[in-house]
Amino acid sequence: MTIAILLLTVLALAYANGANDNFKGVATLFGSGTCSFRKALAWATVTTLAGSLLALVLAHGLVDNFKGKGLVPDAVTRQPTFLLAVALGAGLTVLLATFTGMPISTTHALTGALVGAGLCAAWGEVALSALGRSFVLPLLCGPLVALALTVAIYPLFCFARRTFGVASASCVCLGAKYEEVVKQADGSLMLVRTGLAVETGQASECYERYQGQVLGVEAGRVLDALHYLSGGAVGFARGLNDTPKIVALLVAGDAISPGAISPNVGLALVAIFMAVGGLINSRKVALTMSQKITRMNPGQGFTANLVTSVLVALASPLGLPVSTTHVSCGSLFGIGMVNGTAKGKMILTILLAWITTLPTGAALAAGLYFAFRMLGVGD
């Protein structure tokens, strides 16, 4: 019975993770007008699932970290009540943020839940030094490194584009293709190809596209292909980095009922529920990431995704629990700094959500731990 309850809480956490995180890798595809919301979501689902299925092979270090090893005594990590409180506390924290459209870190929520439940289960025995060294430092450094790399790399890409003679132009989507437009003195738009005036419902419907050829290939198509690949790489890296953190709770639960849930079965279930969460409940966070942090063109979106995917992918084999959320948002903050369209109020709101994630996860997990003990759940 206890293992069944643990499985349900872990799957709830996986669902919450997918709802809040799955779209983050493709937010720039949607925000830059490269593809529709549905296409971006489908691509995110496929690539994240692929990363999830390879997670246990390539990221063993994260499984150990998020069983609580080195943070709380080993005996505590085998307590059903502790595992239930951690899974449900982290899941509720992520769901709360998802319903308000805030992109937060499942890593942060899990870390907070581990600390909150750990303090209740073994007061005075939580290794806070390990928390700072193995958890907090990578989480703090991730967005700062992403921002700095984005600000440094994007001008180099712009220089390369100009060197190859590729120009940017404002376009609107007419049917299945983009048409270049020029803004007139009265604010109207005129089609370059025909000279006809066009109207758009919102300014966001006018996107910047690239024109010109590189080695005989249309630059816009090459960039779109690279943008899709970079978005897919972020999704893959996120699945690779996040899935072990959630599966770790089931692996730790194997001590409760040895052999009840094999790691492979647990991995498959977590991957499926992450995908379902993204398909059903990702829209609010998607709009925040795509449209409310900064405006972007395809080149800027590609740069942000490239930085994010490289940083997250490198962290996984090293066992560093970086947050895909923090890294991807850090890259978008960098794009906003470069193009001057960063929306400061939204960025401050997101930063506040990040600051409160860990204590919220800790408080919820601590409360749940005491409630489960009083009700005899997990005994």
What does this structure look like?
By secondary structure, the chain is an alpha+beta fold. The protein has helices at 2-21, 27-31, 37-53, 55-58, 60-65, 74-77, 80-99, 106-121, 128-163, 219-253, 263-281, 283-291, 298-318, 324-339, 344-375, and strands spanning 167-174, 177-183, 189-191, 197-198, 206-211, 213-214, 217-218. The strands form two sheets. Strands 4-3-2-1-5 form a five-stranded antiparallel beta sheet. Strands 6-7 form a two-stranded antiparallel sheet. Helix 9 packs parallel to helix 14 (324-339) and helix 10 packs across helix 11. The longest helix is centred in the middle third of the chain and has 36 residues, at 128-163. It is elongated, with a radius of gyration of 22 Å. The N and C termini lie close together (10 Å).
TL;DR?
The chain is α+β, with helices and mostly antiparallel strands. The protein is built from 15 helices and seven strands.
Please tag this protein with its features.
5-stranded antiparallel beta sheet; 379 residues; two-stranded antiparallel sheet; single chain; 15 helices; 69% helix; alpha+beta
- Biggest β-sheet, characterized? 5 strands, antiparallel
Biggest sheet, spatial arrangement of strands: 4-3-2-1-5
The structure class reads alpha+beta
Average pLDDT score:
79
Helicity range: 55-70%
Produce the secondary structure layout.
Blueprint: H1 2-21, H2 27-31, H3 37-53, H4 55-58, H5 60-65, H6 74-77, H7 80-99, H8 106-121, H9 128-163, E1 167-174, E2 177-183, E3 189-191, E4 197-198, E5 206-211, E6 213-214, E7 217-218, H10 219-253, H11 263-281, H12 283-291, H13 298-318, H14 324-339, H15 344-375
Antiparallel strand pairs: 1-2, 1-5, 2-3, 3-4, 6-7
Helix pairs in contact: 1-7, 1-10, 1-11, 3-10, 3-11, 7-8, 7-10, 7-15, 8-15, 9-13, 9-14, 10-11, 10-13, 13-14
